[in-house]
Please model this.
Amino acid sequence: MTILGCRIGIHAAKTRRGISALPQHEITAAEEALGIPQSAWDDRLPFGSLVATTLVEASIPTGRLTPDLFGDFTPGRFGWFLSGTIALSMPIPTRGCQGIFFTPDPH
Model:
């Protein structure tokens, strides 16, 4: 199965585990990217929900990418190039899991 060329959902994790273990420079970078201070994340971020859809254009080995603060760039992993990202007008509470997962069709 390939997801290249497919529209997929983007899920915001339910758990906040790991956030407190992040180095301060990564928390600061996330605050700047979101425009929301960490103290307001619980009230303002839609944890445990589908938040957007996007098109998967390409998959590139991480060795060919420039590492940043928001990814795991260890050897053997891949980065996705995405396009046409659309934020949902209202997040949809959804149980997620690691990796690619499928949700029931609501219709």
Notes: The first strand starts at residue 7 and ends at 12. Residues 24-34 form the longest helix (11 residues). The CA atoms of residues 54 and 85 lie 4 Å apart. DSSP finds two helices and three strands in the chain.
